[in-house]
Amino acid sequence: MKLIADLHTHTTASTHAFSTLRELVWQAQTLGMCAMAVTDHAPALPDSPHPHYFKNITSLPDILDDGFLLLKGAEVNVMDAGGALDLPERRLEKLDWVIASLHHRCIEPMDVDTTTSLWLAIAENPLVDMIGHSETQEYLYDYDRATKAFAAHNKVVELNAGSAFSRPGNEGNLRRLAQSCKQNGAYVAVNTDAHSLYSLGHTEAVLKMLAAIDFPEELVVNSSKERLRETLRRHKKPIAQRIEGLW
Ligand SMILES: [Zn+2]
Ligand SMILES: [Zn+2]
How many angstroms separate the alpha carbon of residue 163 from the centre of ligand 1? Predict the structure, then answer.
């Protein structure tokens, strides 16, 4: 399986990241990819860009040189067990790719039942496209129940290759999460969560794990152009219309 896009990346707009947008795109192109989502941290996380950034980002082109697709997105923070997010709806509905993630600075670890209901609430939020790095032990949840809901609402479950570095020790959870996605027919994406151009492309360990559990390629939304296009259509993203016939 070859990945044609990375759907979770950070630029220097998040001040703990190290590459510009152009540098990330250049590296993604060098690696043979044809799309990328830029998903800097939403405002509740320290080191995130100013809220205006998420308005201005929509002025960037959809398609860059050589037909490269740029999805303008955000990694938003889930702020409470009810699934509240830290960007207003009017911003989220203009973005091409919205990741909902749990970060320490924004939400305390909870018990399994509470974390499960949080993800069930997020599953029903039409403005969320992808569930970010949800495999960590401190935010453990009922993978079977939640991935059924993710599948029912077409959410994409991220299998985060960068977690091995930034949140180590959760490889077993990641594998169990992937197995639940397979069993319940939930879509996944394999991403790096790159905070510099040097992280892009390092997805070998996750791809190896997927091969070991015989994970169906058709559920991996960033494994072909057609699958990514279909995902944008399924999520009713305006960009799906804008790039019709162009990408
Ligand atoms: Zn994150
Ligand atoms: Zn991230």
Answer: 9
